[in-house]
Amino acid sequence: MMSRHVLLSVFCGAAILPFVLHPAGNRGSQSQLAAPSELRDTVTLYTQDRAALLRRYEVEYSPARRERMRRFYRDWQNRLNRMDFDRLSQEGKVDYILLANEVRYQLELLSREERQYEEMLPLAPFAPVVMDLVESWRRMESMDPPKAAATLAALAKDVEGARQQLRAVGRTDGSSRRIVAFRTLGMVENLRRILERWNGFYSGYDPMYSWWAADPYKRADQALADYLKALREEVLGFRPGQEEPIIADPIGAEGIRADLSHEMIPYSLEELVAIAEQEFAWCEAEFKKAAREMGFGDDWRAALEKVKQSYVEPGKQPDLVRDLAREAEEFVERRDLVTVPPLAKEIWRMEMMSPERQRVSPFFLGGEVIRISYPTDGMTHEEKLMSMRGNNPYFSRATVHHELIPGHHLQGFMTSRYNSHRQAFSTPFWGEGWALYWEMLLWDLGFPRTPEEKIGMLFWRSHRAARIIFSLSVHLGTMTPEEAIEFLVQRVGHERANAAAEVRRSFNGTYPPLYQAAYMLGGLQFRALHRELVESGKMTNRQFHDAILRGGRMPVEMVRARLTGERLTRDYRSRWRFAEVSPPAR
Question: Residue 19: its pLDDT value, please?
Fold first, then answer.
């Protein structure tokens, strides 16, 4: 009978290297096979129970959901407090610390959500009525049709009253009120959708409900539609058929510090900006070197413009992506940098990104499926040129491996097979940081051969430094989204439409506040760990990279704790200084 280890080797089509730890007191040893974490099933239980509760308590911003989730997280805190931490293995201690950190942060997020809800209630005082109707449904209480009809009729009047209040105030350009109005728009859109589902549960199935409530529901739904239209057009200034403006919802300095603590980043906001500026300075110096090789002197912007004009003809971008992906695979395998299972190379595939999606994601999106951003025949002439210029071969060569192998696709392939319970601790500092780290490592290993290829890689590296600055600044309220767009155009050299799409996806979507800063900062964390373990000779490149992928997703400081055998305590707090920060100029 084959062992599980051999079976995995056969399944993945590659030899599986054993994952090893450096136990405390013997950090150079590479002979000990890591045992599975004793808390693997415990973390899975937490994850599944949390997901089940969020499916049951589905109304965003609902006080009932907050109350239930607070009880859930506090119960888990008590459960963790009862565990004998010192009897756990290193892997178990890692999971304990990660789970305690996650639960603590989720409680902080509930408090943040409660503050946001209180800000929105004056604009949507009818929200609790809808939430109560849904909660009554989910508690499976018997329907009282006359009472439901009366509630819906009163709801329609309350919503109309709120709409009249909006009209009395009119459009606002005040940033704080505009932000609250934009957040309220999302909450009420969700409430309208879920009220439609509530009505659909009874309508036609309960004849008495239909007799009593059909008309009141129709009026309540129309009132909500009118309210949303007024909020969108009369308060926020959105116009039908026009692209919505970019509205950020800053979390402030206190919120950023809480998020940094959760990500185990022990740096001040000022230090993080200083790190970004240091990276910018390095990029600019390298830009100038490449520009000189291209005959432009120190005018790196002219060299960048030359690179942008190298786009391939329409219809040829998929061929380019295929060839670039194979080139990157061959590069890392020839140098034995990481295990690449043949199945991982076999299953990735391409899709074209829709024109609508390209307005938010003007470049590649990756994973098992790489989504290619390139113009369609229905775009305007200006949109076509901006897309082709922004996805030229040199920019693409610097990012295809970020999205596929050894980047996001290889990440997803491995973490779905090893320590998958740690998806609960997934963080962009690990996810995006890993892919960005490979851009850094491949630069160091000579992957860019020509000055044009260097320009392509430097463009993205400077962009990631810019992301630290503009994302933190917007969340601090010291930079507007419009200023962030201008910053990307002037400091990095973005096409304006692409810069606008980058800022839009950062703030109008579902990305957490530190997501954009995580690329560069996570990459620097992995790079510092590479210096500590690989450049020192304690591990080979392949051992190092395989150990990270097979360890699962988590803040990078805990990756370091696993690989170095660092002594862990129940009350562990972040302290790893992974990047030097130059003192400010006087």
Answer: 45
CA dihedral 348, 363, 263, 550 (to 10 degrees): 20
pLDDT of residue 8: 37
Decide if pLDDT at 120 tops 50.
yes
495 and 390 in contact (C-beta within 8 Å)?
A: yes
> Within 240-268, where are the H helices?
252-262
Distances (CA, A) of 292 to 142, 302, 303, 394, 460: 77, 11, 9, 17, 19
What pLDDT is attached to residue 451? 97
Grouping H, G, I as helix, E, B as strand and the rest as coil, residue 20 is strand
- List beta partners, residue 571: none
pLDDT of residue 432: 96
- What is the per-residue burial (b if ≥16 Cβ within 10 Å, else e) of 106-120? bbbbbebbeebbeeb
Mean pLDDT along residues 137-150: 97
Angle formed by the axes of helices 451-476 and 252-262, nearest 10°? 120
Question: How far apart, in Å, do the first and last CA atoms of the chain sit?
Answer: 70
SS3 category, 252? helix
The confidence band for 366, taking pLDDT boundaries of 50, 70 and 90, is: confident
How far apart are the C-alpha atoms of 144 and 570, rounded to whole Å? 52
552: left (phi over 0), alpha (psi -120 to 50) or beta: left
- What is the secondary structure of 352-369 as a DSSP string? EPPHHHHTT--S-B-SSE
Closest CA to 503 of 518, 521, 491, 516: 516
The single residue listed with the structure tokens 């920060």 is 581
pLDDT band at 546 (very low <50, low <70, confident <90, very high): very high
Distances (CA, A) of 554 to 139, 428, 562, 574: 36, 9, 11, 13
**What pLDDT is stored for residue 388 in this prediction?**
80
**Amino acid at the residue 334:** R
Q: What is the mean pLDDT of residues 119-143?
A: 97
- Please give the Cα distance from 378 to 355 (Å, whole number): 8
Are 283 and 459 in contact by the 8 Å Cβ rule? The answer is: no
- At 286-299, the pLDDT tens digits run 999 999 999 999 99
